Amino acid sequence: MFDLKNKKALVTGGASGIGAAIVETFARAGASVWIADRDEENGQKLAKTIGGTFLSLDVASDSDFLRAAEAVGTLDVLANIAGIGHVGTLLNTAAADLDRLFEVNVRGVFNGCKAFVPAMLERQSGSVINMASVGGVIAIRERLAYTTSKFAVVGLTKALALDHSHTGVRFNCICPGRVETPFVMARLQEYPDPDKAYREMASTQLNGRMLKPEEIAAAALYLAADESAMVTGSTMILDGGWSIGK
């Protein structure tokens, strides 16, 4: 396993789902982990379990991030994982829906970088991992606002990598397909036939199953570790072949 000993990491959206899996994986690899989330109950529980620190934070708030930077100090790894979704085409997506997804999915990444990257640049060391989506490299039907926001995350990541290519700070994004998060699995139970609903949702991925949060966390661990020193500006696609089509 990759070693993160003596590294300090902060994970937004770290109280549940993919973020929690990344928190646990980083902690097992030896990192000192800060869990940044609005969900204080689950965040505190996880922090206690891994011996980390919980930090109440709304990624859409630049002032929250500035306070976080003062409390945490310089990071070795910033994982911008928090994000939200929206179902809809142009016809049933309001401007407010688009604004909200950009506020969280795009501005949240920008705010995190704005708060923590300057110190990384000064030290000439650090890894920034942004959560995009397969919807950041191909369009997803009836996900207009979500797809648009995730394309923006991919573009933001590449722009950061290009602008700071000789600094020792790396910027990459992970682009997952559908994932078996607790939220998704709970939604499946609302269908008359949860197993059938699962198969239909997973059918976009060529191997016929969804990803597990731990599989995405493994990719994040690689990007956080020194072994990925030559990886920057990348879109790491973990989608079971969805993006190559059928």
Structural overview:
The protein has eight helices and seven strands, in the order E-H-E-H-E-H-E-H-E-H-E-H-H-H-E. The protein has 246 residues and is α/β, with parallel strands linked by helices. The protein has one domain (8-180, 212-244): Rossmann fold (3-Layer(aba) Sandwich). Strands 3-2-1-4-5-6-7 form a seven-stranded parallel beta sheet, sandwiched between helices. Helix 3 (62-72) packs parallel to helix 4. The mean pLDDT is 96.
CATH C-level label: Alpha Beta
Q: What is the straight-line distance between the termini?
A: 34 Å
Instruction: Provide the number of structural domains.
Output: 1
Query: Which structural class matches the secondary elements?
Result: alpha/beta
Q: Could you tell me the radius of gyration in angstroms?
A: 17 Å
Which key features would you list for this structure?
single chain, 246 residues, alpha/beta, Rossmann fold, 8 helices, 7 strands, 15% strand, globular
Topology readout:
Elements: E1 8-12, H1 17-28, E2 32-37, H2 40-50, E3 53-56, H3 62-72, E4 77-80, H4 95-123, E5 126-131, H5 144-163, E6 169-176, H6 182-188, H7 194-202, H8 213-224, E7 235-238
Helix pairs in contact: 1-8, 3-4, 4-5
Summarize the structure.
By secondary structure, the chain is of the alpha/beta class. The protein contains eight helices and seven strands, in the order βαβαβαβαβαβαααβ. The longest helix is centred in the middle third of the chain and has 29 residues.
